[in-house]
Structure formats: C-alpha cells, structure tokens
What does this fold into?
Amino acid sequence: MHSKRDLNRHRIIAAADELFYQQGYQHTSFNDIARQAEMSRGNFYYYFKSKDDILLSVIKRRRAQVSRMLEEWTQAEADPRARLHRFARRLCEQRDQLLHYGCPFGSMVLELAKSKPALIPAARSLFEVFESWLMEQLAALGHTDDARGIARHLLVLTQGVILVGNVFDDPALIEREVAAIEAFMDSL
Amino acid sequence: MHSKRDLNRHRIIAAADELFYQQGYQHTSFNDIARQAEMSRGNFYYYFKSKDDILLSVIKRRRAQVSRMLEEWTQAEADPRARLHRFARRLCEQRDQLLHYGCPFGSMVLELAKSKPALIPAARSLFEVFESWLMEQLAALGHTDDARGIARHLLVLTQGVILVGNVFDDPALIEREVAAIEAFMDSL
DNA sequence: GTCTATAGACCGATAGAC
DNA sequence: GTCTATCGGTCTATAGAC
It folds into this structure.
C-alpha cells in the first residue's frame, strides 16, 4: 500500500540519503533534512525513533537501489565480462559526483568507523551486495577458488580511484584508472 | 626556543591529532581535546584562534612527520626500489590502526570534502608530499614521463587497500594486497 | 609591578529528542 | 514548539614567575 505514512517516510529517507552523501551523517541536522524534504521537523519522531534509525533506513534504501542496478546489468548483459565492464564504467558515469563527495558507500563506512562503530555492519552490507555480485561474475569466468579475493581486489581498485580522484580533484585520473581496471578485467 | 608556550601548543596539537584521527574532526569537541591534553578548555583561545586553526596546525604537524619519515627512508635505502618497498610495507606495520580508523590523510580529505571544502587544499598537501617523493623514486627508476601517473596509481592502490580493509575488517586482505603492490613495484 | 598562562563562568546558537 | 545538553567561541579575574 502507498499510505500517506509510507509516502512521507519515503520523502524523509530520500532527503536524508542525498544530504548524508553530500554533507556526511553528523554534519546533517534534522533541520537540513526537514528543509530538503519540505516537511516540518516536528513530525520526524512520528516516522523514526532516532537519527540513527533514519540512517538505517537510508542504508536499506541504498541497498535496494544497488540490488536493482546489479540485476539490470545481469539481465542486460549475458557475458559476465561485459557485466564487469559495466561495473567499471559506472565510475566514469558518476565521475563528477564521486570527485565532489567520494563514494557514497565507502565514505559512509569511514565516517561511521570514527563516530558510530556500532553501525558499521549495516553500512558494510552495501559492500557485501557488490562483493557477492562480483563473485558470481568471476565464478562464471572460471574463478571459483579465488573469486572473493579478486572481487575484493576490484573493490580496492574502485575505492582507491575514487578517493585519490577526490583528493586531487582529477577527472583524468578516473578515466585513466578505469581503463586500467578494464584491462585487468580482460586479463581474467 | 622551547618556551612554555611552545610546549603547551604542542600538547594541544598532539592531543587533537590523535583524536581527529580516531574520532574525526567534527566529532571531536574542545572538551575532548582538553581532557586528552590535560588542560583547561578555556586556554585554547590563548593558543589558537579557532578550531579550524587547530586543524591547520595538526595538518602542519602531520606534514612534518611525513617529511621526516620519507627522509629517513631515503637515507636508509640507496636503491629507489627498496625505498618504494618501505612505502608499501608501512601499510602492514600500521595495519591495526588502519583497519580501525582508516588512513589518517585519506579520511581527513573525505571528511573535509563533505563539511569544510575550504580546508581541502591544506589536507591535500599531505598527499602532495607523498606524491613528489614517489615521483623522485620513479624518476630514478627511469620513469620520467609517467612518474606522476604511476605515483598516483600507487596512491590509488594504497588508499583502496586501507578503505576496503577497513570495510571488511580484514587483516589478510592488507597482507595480500601489499604483496601485489610490491610485485607491481618490482615490475616497474 | 608586570607579563604569561590559566581556569572557569558565560554567551548565543543549534543539536537531537520528545 | 519546547526542552535540555552541548557546541564553538568569548571574557575576565587572578595565580605564579621574574
């Protein structure tokens, strides 16, 4: 059902999702979220029991979006290698955002590691979605034993590109490193 | 000279340095720093004009420490390749801290990107110290044209390892990926 | 007495919670 | 809309070294 309650919950989560990415979790206040969602701040505790609770809902939303995206890639491309290239090229598609705010998943884990370690497992689950999808593609390419290691290596490369691209604000670095990642994928 | 003023300034900066790393900049309050430095909070504005000013001093301190470390490596190892290996192996030496809190330089840039973009250039300067040292070693190995690109690629690898290691809290990943980085260095 | 250094009261603003 | 805690930041009385 799309009750009014569900719609308002969704508006709050969508607003928080964007702001948590652009400003970070701690640096985003209820007022910020209220302004972005065009709602009164007072209602929030009708929908959520705490700020942490909003974050958990944001993570859940992101996980659903990631799952949907990966499913689309799986259906659009029959070749596992072509699927991996989709994964790599997404860095270029999202380049400008990534250079500004970093990876929405990596930066969240890092922030929580410093201020809310109890929430790390929830944020880690986003990476696990990517990891298991990558492992499926790698297994299809014959890498059954070392699938996890290679999957994590691909995550290392992508997280590194984003972070260093962010540091130097260097769009060319993204393009160059993505090409190297694709070359590595072809060598598998 | 080591006036009392200098010593106390140093105590505040050292306390802030540790806390900013472990808890993040925003999540560390003046009270936290006061407790850690065993000083009264009221004094801080005798030594610094703002919290941002403390951060700038922390960055300056870290830059000096990094420069000193790189200089030591340069003097201890005559072979540029051996120097690069020092750089890689440091990830293993610092493993436990890195798994807990991430890279002190990378995580700072990421936090500032979301909340204090004006301070990014200061934090970036830490990476530039590493970058230029790496470029010197690469140039000595004959990589004069592509030194910057390779240097940044090494930074990509190291930042990626730390971040993904942090996400999965996986010490073995650090060891494995560092071995791969060293193999890459040998191929240069 | 002078100067450096210090402690802690105090401020307005704003946070999350209700 | 209100509550309480805490934030970064300010001010000042004064203690101790010289």
Remarks:
- The mean pLDDT of chain A is 96.
- DSSP finds ten helices and no strands in chain A.
- Residues 29-31, 42, 44-45, 49-51 of chain A lie near DNA strand C (CB under 10 Å from a C1').
